[in-house]
Design goal:
flat, alpha+beta, 12 strands, about 600 residues, about 65% helix, 6-stranded mixed beta sheet
Length: about 600
C-alpha cells in the first residue's frame, strides 16, 4: 500500500467536522453582521435627530438675535437651518420607514408632528417677528413676549426626546443582541476548535502509529550513519515510499563513505584557506588605517610572515624618479636589497618569475644572489609599476611551500593596492599642505602648526617665535623683469628659508612675496639673529635669469615672540607683520623686533 492513503484516511473525520463547523460559523457570522447593521442604523437615526435639533436651535437663536440687535447678520444661521431642515427630516423619515419595527408608525408620527410644529413656528413666530422687527423693535419685542415661539420649540424638543428615547431603547436592544451573537460565535469557535484539535491529534497519532515502525528503522540507521559507522544498510520492506527511501538511503550511505574520505582531505586545506583569507582581510583593514609608506611597511613586515609561512623575502619600491628600487621592508631574516629596475626580468616582462620557470631568461642582472631561488613578483596598480616583491624558502635548499602559487598572487594584489593607496595619500597630503612654487608649507598648514606649537608653548612655558619676511619692491621687480624672473627669486628665497631653518621650524609661504618661519623653542634673541642671517644671505646674492642680471635682492623681516610681544598664539603673525611693516618703513633690507602693546618695533641693521 502507498503511504498517501495511510496518511489521508485518518483525516477524513476532521474534514467532515470542519465542513459542519463552517456552516454553523457562517450562520453565526451572518446573525452578528445583521445585528451590528441594525445597531449602526439606529445610531445614524439618532445622529439625524441630533442634527435636526441643532438646526431648530439655529432657527430660534437666529431670529432672537435679529430681534434683539436688528442686525441682519444674525439671520444667516436661521436661513441656513430653514434650507437644511427639510432634507434632514426627510432623511430621518426615510430611515424610519426602512425599519420593520413595531414602533415605526409612532416614530413616523413624531417626525410629522415635528415638521408641523416647525412650520407653525415659522408662520406664527419666525417670519412675523422678522417682518415686524424691520418696522419696530417694540412691536417685535411684544411678539416675543407672548411666548408662542418658546411653546412651539419646547413641543419640538419633547417630540424629539420621545423619538430619541425610543431609538435609544432599540439601540440598546440591538447592541445586546449583537453582543449575544458575538458570544455565540465565540462559543461556537471554541467548541469546534477543541473538537478539531482533539480529532486532529487522534488522527495524527493514528497516522504516526501506522508509519512510525517503518521510519523508526530509517531513523536508527541514520543515527548509526551519523556516528560514523560504515556500511549501514536498510532492509527493503514496508510501504512503497519507505522501500524507495530505503534504497535511496543505501545509495547515500555508499556515496557518503566515499565523500567522507574526500572531505577529510579537503578540510585541512579549507581551514588553512579561511585563515589566510581572514589574515588578508585584517591586513587590508590595518593598511587602510596607515598614514604613509613607512607605517604601511611596518604593517606588511609583520603580516607577510603569517601570509607566506615558510618563506623569507623583501619588498622594494620605486623612488620618486623611478630609476631606483628602494628597499621598504624585509622579513624572515632577509637582507634588504634594491638596485636598478631595469635589471629585473620580472619587471621588464611584467610577470611573476618562479625559480623553476623554464625558458630562455638568463639570471637577473640585479637583486640578491642574481635572483636565483627567488620568486619575483612585480607589483602593479592601475597600469603603474610600484615595485617588486621577492620571496624564497625560509631555509636555503628547501623547496618553496606547495600552496605558494595560490597564495602569492592574492597577497601581491593586496600589497600593490595598499602601496598605490598610501602613495596617493601621501601625494594628496603634500599637495594640500605645500606651496606648489617653492615647496614650502602653505597658509593652511602654517595655521595648524601655529595652533599646535602655541598650545605646546603655553602648556610648557617654552619660547615660541615667528619671523615674517617680505621681498622688497617685488612688484616693481616683476614689472621690470617679468613674472618668470619673479618666480625664480621666490624659489631662491624659499630655498634659503628652508636651508637656514633649524630642526623643528616650519618654513611657509602664506602667499605672494610673503614668507613666514615659525620657530618653536627659540626666544627673541635667537630668532632675531636668525632673521639677520637670512637678511645677509639674501642681500649677498648676485642673481641672473635668462641672461639678464637681476640686480640686488633684499628682504625685510619682522620678529615677534609669544608672551613677550603677542599675548596669544593667534596674535603672533599679526604682531610679526607689524614689525615687518616697521622694517619697511625704516628703509627696508633690515630686521625689526616687535615691542610690547603700544610700543614701536626696534629696528636692527
Amino acid at each position: 500500500m502507498r503511504l498517501a492513503p495511510l496518511l489521508l484516511l485518518p483525516q477524513l473525520p476532521v474534514w467532515i467536522l470542519l465542513a459542519v463547523a463552517g456552516v454553523q460559523l457562517s450562520a453565526a457570522v451572518d446573525a452578528r453582521t445583521q445585528a451590528t447593521a441594525e445597531a449602526a442604523h439606529s445610531r445614524e437615526q439618532l445622529s439625524h435627530m441630533e442634527a435636526a435639533l441643532r438646526l431648530t436651535l439655529d432657527l430660534e437663536t437666529g431670529v432672537r438675535g435679529y430681534v434683539i440687535t436688528g442686525q441682519s447678520a444674525f439671520l444667516a444661521p436661521y436661513r441656513q437651518a430653514t434650507a437644511a431642515l427639510p432634507e434632514v427630516l426627510g432623511t430621518l423619515r426615510e430611515g424610519v420607514a426602512a425599519q420593520a419595527t413595531p414602533d415605526r408608525p409612532a416614530q413616523l408620527a413624531r417626525i410629522s408632528r415635528i415638521e408641523t410644529l416647525l412650520e407653525r413656528w415659522q408662520s406664527r413666530v419666525g417670519r412675523p417677528e422678522i417682518a415686524v422687527r424691520g418696522r419696530s423693535a417694540q412691536e417685535a419685542a411684544a411678539l416675543v413676549a407672548r411666548g408662542t415661539g418658546k411653546r412651539l420649540i419646547d413641543a419640538v424638543r419633547a417630540e424629539a426626546a420621545a423619538f430619541t428615547r425610543t431609538e435609544g431603547i432599540r439601540l440598546r436592544e440591538q447592541e445586546a443582541a449583537a453582543l449575544a451573537r458575538l458570544q455565540d460565535l465565540r462559543r461556537t469557535l471554541l467548541e469546534y476548535g477543541i473538537a478539531v484539535i482533539a480529532l486532529s491529534v487522534l488522527s495524527g497519532l493514528l497516522a504516526a502509529a501506522l508509519i512510525s515502525r517503518s521510519y523508526r528503522r530509517v531513523s536508527l540507521a541514520a543515527e548509526r550513519l551519523a556516528r560514523g559507522e560504515g556500511g549501514v544498510r536498510l532492509s527493503n520492506r514496508g510501504p512503497q515510499e519507505v522501500r524507495s527511501l530505503s534504497a535511496a538511503f543505501n545509495r547515500m550511505s555508499e556515496q557518503l563513505g566515499a565523500a567522507q574520505a574526500e572531505a577529510q582531505g579537503r578540510a585541512a586545506d579549507l581551514a588553512t584557506q579561511n585563515a589566510r583569507m581572514g589574515a588578508l582581510g585584517d591586513l587590508s583593514d590595518w593598511l587602510q588605517a596607515a598614514r604613509g609608506l613607512e607605517e604601511g611597511g611596518q604593517i606588511l613586515a609583520r603580516a607577510l610572515p603569517t601570509l607566506l609561512p615558510g618563506t623569507r623575502g623583501s619588498l622594494a619600491t620605486h623612488n620618486a624618479s623611478r630609476n631606483l628600487l628602494v628597499p621598504l621592508l624585509t622579513w624572515g631574516g632577509e637582507t634588504a636589497s634594491g638596485g636598478a629596475p631595469d635589471g629585473c626580468w620580472a619587471l621588464r616582462r611584467g610577470e611573476t618569475r618562479w625559480p623553476q620557470d623554464s625558458g630562455f631568461a638568463p639570471a637577473c642582472l640585479s637583486g640578491p644572489g642574481g635572483g636565483g631561488g627567488y620568486v619575483c613578483v612585480p607589483l602593479f596598480s592601475h597600469g603603474e609599476t610600484l615595485g617588486i616583491l621577492r620571496v624564497r624558502p625560509e631555509v636555503d635548499g628547501q623547496p618553496l611551500p606547495a600552496d605558494l602559487r595560490e597564495t602569492l598572487p592574492a597577497v601581491a594584489r593586496q600589497v600593490a593596492l595598499a602601496l598605490a593607496g598610501l602613495r596617493l595619500q601621501e601625494r594628496l597630503h603634500q599637495q594640500a599642505i605645500r606651496d606648489p612654487l617653492t615647496g614650502l608649507f602653505n597658509r593652511r598648514w602654517l595655521e595648524d602648526a601655529l595652533a599646535s606649537a602655541g598650545a605646546h608653548a603655553v602648556a610648557t612655558d617654552e619660547p615660541l617665535s615667528l619671523i615674517a619676511l617680505d621681498v622688497d619692491h617685488f612688484k616693481r621687480f616683476n614689472d621690470t623683469f617679468g613674472h618668470e624672473a619673479g618666480d625664480a627669486v621666490l624659489v631662491r628665497v624659499g630655498a634659503a628659508l628652508r636651508d637656514l631653518a633649524p630642526p623643528g621650524a616650519v618654513p611657509a609661504r602664506p602667499g605672494g612675496e610673503e614668507f613666514t618661519l615659525l620657530l618653536p623653542g627659540l626666544d627673541t634673541g635667537a630668532a632675531a639673529a636668525l632673521a639677520e642671517r637670512l637678511r645677509e644671505t639674501v642681500a649677498g646674492w648676485s642673481l641672473s635669469h635668462a641672461g639678464m642680471t637681476l640686480g640686488q635682492i633684499t628682504v625685510s623681516l619682522g620678529v615677534a615672540t609669544l608672551g613677550v610681544h603677542a599675548p596669544a598664539p593667534e596674535a603672533l603673525p599679526r604682531v610679526a607683520d607689524e614689525a615687518l611693516y616697521a622694517a619697511k618703513a625704516g628703509g627696508r633690507n633690515r630686521v625689526a623686533v616687535a615691542r610690547g602693546v603700544g610700543a614701536s618695533p626696534v629696528l636692527a641693521h
